[in-house]
Automatic annotation (TrEMBL):
Keyword Membrane annotated: yes
Name recorded for this polypeptide: Transport permease protein
Keywords per UniProt: Cell inner membrane, Cell membrane, Membrane, Transmembrane, Transmembrane helix, Transport
Transmembrane segments: 58-76, 88-104, 139-159, 166-188, 200-219, 269-287
PANTHER family the UniProt entry points to: INNER MEMBRANE TRANSPORT PERMEASE, TRANSPORT PERMEASE PROTEIN
Domain ABC transmembrane type-2: 56-294
Protein family (similarity comment): Belongs to the ABC-2 integral membrane protein family.
UniProt cross-references to Pfam families, sorted A to Z: ABC2_membrane (PF01061)
Top-rank taxon, per record: Bacteria
Membrane-topology annotation of the record: Multi-pass membrane protein
Compartment list: Cell inner membrane; Cell membrane
């Protein structure tokens, strides 16, 4: 969080810093939920700081993804005809981009959250898990406009929500949220002790874009490498999350959704998604325990 913010952002930060000191707060994600009012203030302050000084303000969160989708549609669908082998390839691409954006912003934002909020951490007796959680909620807030931009062309192409598809999309977001928050907790406390951890997180998220079936279909991986390598590829939880959201939105825009899902999506999609989500939740619990062991040393290192 910037300490040079002005206007509403500065007033919001001043309100947080003006809260009376109290004995050391209990820690843990449950305590973060209990203090949801303070969590809401932190989320609002972070969002205001991002658009501080702009004329359009939060409208940029709609304008930027809309322009991005238009560019991808023109490039992949019109110019180079990538969609000739797959229906509505631009939807395939943008659906993956939505969930990748949510994950990377949760991961990177969570990693930097303790360092960027050092002034609050040293003054307020709050559970420090609140800062990575707040960055996940900010990422979710910025993902909503992207979802709206995704849904509009889907509806125009004949997509209608179905129970299985919505369950797939929800499972994909749950998987990305649990994994992103777990990594955000681990890397945020590591970044306090060694700033190189933040650079490592940024480097890792760059690989995410190319390691998921977003700019290329899963069938390309399966055809090029076959078993068992395509199976190893599916061990990437973000690849699974992308496939789940594509099942929720992209397949419904094609002329025969059932055939599209059978051809372009792997078998056992839900079973693998549920397994990876469970593993991510276990990782989140372990990450929170590691965070709790190290957080007492965070103020002195900041």
């Amino acid at each position: 969080m910037s300490t040079t913010a002005s206007g509403p952002a500065r007033r919001a930060e001043a309100d947080l810093e003006a809260l009376p000191l109290a004995p050391p707060a209990a820690t843990g994600l449950r305590e973060v939920v209990r203090r949801r009012y303070l969590l809401g203030m932190l989320v609002r302050n972070t969002i205001k700081s991002r658009y501080q000084g702009t004329v359009l303000g939060w409208l940029w969160s709609y304008l930027q993804p809309a322009i991005r989708f238009a560019m991808f549609y023109f490039l992949f669908q019109v110019m180079i005809g990538r969609g000739s082998g797959m229906e509505n390839f631009a939807i395939h691409l943008f659906a993956g981009m939505v969930i990748v954006h949510f994950f990377t912003e949760t991961f990177n934002g969570g990693t930097q959250s303790l360092v960027q909020n050092r002034s609050l951490i040293t003054k307020l007796p709050v559970p420090r898990e609140m800062f990575p959680v707040a960055r996940m909620l900010v990422a979710a807030w910025h993902t909503v406009p992207m979802l709206i931009i995704l849904v509009v062309p889907c509806v125009l192409l004949g997509w209608r929500p179905d129970l299985v598809g919505m369950a797939a999309a929800l499972l994909g977001f749950t998987l990305a949220a649990a994994l992103g928050l777990a990594l955000g907790l681990l890397f945020s406390v590591g970044n306090v002790f060694m700033r190189d951890v933040g650079k490592i997180a940024q480097t890792l998220t760059q690989f995410v874009t190319f390691s998921v079936p977003m700019m290329y279909p899963f069938t390309l991986v399966d055809d090029r490498f076959g078993d068992p390598w395509s199976g190893y590829y599916l061990l990437n939880p973000m690849a699974e999350a992308v496939l789940l959201i594509q099942r929720g939105f992209w397949t419904g825009t094609t002329s025969d959704p059932e055939v599209t899902a059978a051809v372009h999506l792997p078998d056992q999609l839900f079973a693998r998604g549920l397994t990876m989500t469970a593993i991510s939740i276990v990782l989140l619990v372990l990450a929170q325990r590691v965070f709790s062991r190290l957080e007492a040393r965070v103020p002195e290192r900041l």
